[in-house]
Amino acid sequence: MAGRPREFDRDQALEKARDAFWTRGYEGTSMADLVSALGLASPRIYAAFGSKENLFREAVVLYETREGSFATRALAEEPTARRFVERLLRDAIEVYTRPDLPRGCMVVSAATNCAVENDGVLRWLAERRRARNTLIVERLRKGIRDGELKPDTGPEVLGDYYTTVLFGLSVQARDGVPKERLHALVTVAMQVLDARLSGKP
User: Fold this and answer.
1) If we measure between CA atoms, which residue out of 54, 3, 14, 60 comes closest to residue 37?
2) Which of 23, 70, 149, 184 could join 102 in a cystine, given CB atoms 3.0 to 4.6 angstroms apart?
3) Class at the top of the CATH hierarchy for domain 10-63
């Protein structure tokens, strides 16, 4: 009946779905896997979320507003482009290697290859990854405007580089590379940005 209260916690079910998709990816997570992870029959999952794809999209948004929100926090809280980039990468490592969560970035690893019928999911995730790249590039542009970075700095190339480092950290974390080694990699990667600093206060 329409007025009957749900017998399960929707938010809790969404968290379980997030972890299942985060671990196995979109195509690697079957409805049977979701039934097992959520402890709900498939008709109840469809009734609550509409479809597997809708559930996945909600799970990704949940990830981005919680674990994946480190980039927007760094952008809001760090006063310089250099500090933003370093915090972005180091906070990413902390999220990607948390022992209580699946490793890596959900948006990076959930679907890099899909069957043709799931091209919409592939494009949707690619848009979200491009948005992360845009955020980095725009912050570097501001660093140039503010005089922090040399005027001949190429923000697109530098932004693409740090986006590649960021996504590469996700792959390395999923492969089990220790956190200490990932942080050491960031120390090396920051030398690229340090070479573009103007030296002005």
Assistant:
1) 14
2) 23
3) mainly alpha
